[in-house]
Amino acid sequence: MQPYFSFTNKKNIRAYFTYLICFILFRPACRLHSFALHILFVLYYSDQLHPVDGFSAGLVDEKNIFEWNVTIIGPPDTLYEGGFFNAIMSFPQNYPNSPPTVRFTSDMWHPNVYSDGRVCISILHPPGDDPSGYELASERWTPVHTVESIMLSIISMLSGPNDESPANVEAAKEWREKRDEFKKKVSRCVRKSQEML
């Protein structure tokens, strides 16, 4: 059985030394938000060493661990199948106490995605009670969520939209009342995402 992390694998060695170099480069900023930096380094390099099916992640800028490029692969047997949807995941300075934001940079037609691309799902909402009363506090952000759990929630969102509290009212209305029109718009988004590869 292969060990979880082995220094016999060149990729592991390279990732570990990259982590150390980045940590040294970011050390002056560590006084302000060292816990967030440490957590994000661990999450980022864990994802690089042990990728999860359905998405990939990389840094927008190698000098900024707080912004990640993510690509979400459209889940099989859904309207989004075959798509490669790019997004930016931005982490706050007080991560993991506050949730990151996720904004699609690829065109996305979905009831739970605002027209500017921002994703609207419960686990990305700040902890505590929901002022509008739609969500339970237990459904909202907690520091135990990881990049993987966020991405899996977004993949799940693509598989089954929540049209009861939509971010994009027009998309939700189409989803409920004009499913064929909705499918056509999603198909255009999928094709466009494939062309952008």
From TrEMBL:
Domain UBC core: residue ranges: 35-195
One Gene Ontology term of the molecular function aspect: ATP binding
Enzyme class: transferase
InterPro entries (alphabetical): Ub_conjugating_enzyme, UBC, UBQ-conjugating_AS, UBQ-conjugating_enzyme/RWD
EC number: 2.3.2.23
Residue ranges crossing the lipid bilayer per the database entry: 16-45
Keywords of this entry: ATP-binding, Membrane, Nucleotide-binding, Transferase, Transmembrane, Transmembrane helix, Ubl conjugation pathway
Superkingdom of source: Eukaryota
Annotated active site: 120
Family to which this protein belongs: Belongs to the ubiquitin-conjugating enzyme family.
Function: Accepts the ubiquitin from the E1 complex and catalyzes its covalent attachment to other proteins. Involved in the formation of multiubiquitin chains. Signal the protein for selective degradation.
PANTHER family associated with the record: UBIQUITIN-CONJUGATING ENZYME E2
Name by which UniProt lists this protein: E2 ubiquitin-conjugating enzyme
Species, as recorded: Brassica napus (Rape)
